[in-house]
Amino acid sequence: MDVPAESPADSPLPENEAGSTVPHSSGGWRHLMHAYGGPVLAFVAVFAASYLFYLQVRQHPPAEIWEKAKEIPLQRYALALGLIGIHYLIFAVYEQVGLIYLKTPLSLPRLTLGSFVAYSLTMNLGWVIGGPMGRYQLYKTWGISSVEMVKLMAMLGMTYTVGVHAVPGIFSLWEPLDVPPKIVHEYHLFFDNTRWLGVVFLVFGAVYLLLCATRRGTLRIFGFELQFPPLWLAACHMALCGADLVVMATTLRALMPPEVQVDYVHFLNVVMFTMIIVYFSHAPGGVGVFELCILKFLAAYQDPGIPAAIIMFRVLYFVLPLVVSLVILGAFGVARRIDLSKD
């Protein structure tokens, strides 16, 4: 579980000899940055990436993109929806393994409902907002305490963070993405493909697994106290994370126009590295960032079917589950109030 450690700036300031406290005007700025820095950064990232995405697709009128979306065969949409179902099945197993470790497993109906709501909100709003929002109302009713929920979310979030970096490292060694020569020369990079980044990410994942295998208790890093899960649990979660990234990439590929002939492994690599960029952008759901990166990686194809596929992927993979989850949460809340009024 991630527990912020008390920093010197948060502890009481010493009094001077006259009995007054030392001025702490910087504390106000630090508090504001801690409270609002993340949301502001996320808003800026979403706005900037969305605007850049607009600049990339404005050459294609909305009507043209809509026509391309309608040209996607119905069986492709059906395949995409089936893959989305597998995506949530993977996350249900991901959730249940963590609950088993905490000795609070859920029945299949509750697990299916709870994990769907939790991860649809997490994918759109992030772990910090979507995780608690998706779990609190349901899990508290089912007997899982707030402390157990915090432990669960910290453990799942930490392993997913490692997995979303380490798994793409494997594909980078297999078939690395080329870095455009212009970027290499402009930023004086010592590499022209992502193979070295893959090595770094794999080392990152290996160190994490090593800590899970050897570390007991907590470890303080950058002012946070981390409690690592056992090795079997971390390895299981990382494998499920990798499977989910493959499902995500396959879903997007299913919606791509047939003119986009991209090698499957290369396409997996594109989507996985896009997810790394999305993670660092802090944009909720990767709005704008995900779309822009996919367009950039597939810049060789000037096909309006690509933005159409990306937009429909966003609708099916992110927006539709979010709407369904909000309806479920609303109905659950109403049902709870009716039960309480009867009591």
Query: Which range does the strand content fall in?
Result: under 5%
Mean pLDDT: 80
Structural class: mainly alpha
Main sheet overview: 3 strands, antiparallel
**Strand and helix order:** EHHHHHHHHEEHHHH
Strand order of the largest sheet: 1-3-2
Q: Write down the Rg.
A: 23 Å
Give the low-confidence spans: 1-26
Structure annotation, total helices: 12
SS elements, strand count: 3
Shape: globular
Q: How much helix, percentage-wise, in residues? A: over 70%
Description:
The protein is mostly helical and 343 residues long. 73% of the residues lie in helices and 3% in strands. The chain has a three-stranded antiparallel sheet, with no helix packed on it. The protein is globular and about 60 Å long. Mean pLDDT is 80; it is low at 1-26.
In short:
By secondary structure, this protein is mostly helical.
How would the blueprint of this fold be written?
Elements: E1 3-4, H1 25-57, H2 62-71, H3 74-101, H4 108-125, H5 127-141, H6 146-174, H7 181-186, H8 195-214, E2 218-221, E3 224-227, H9 231-255, H10 264-281, H11 289-297, H12 305-342
Antiparallel strand pairs: 1-3, 2-3
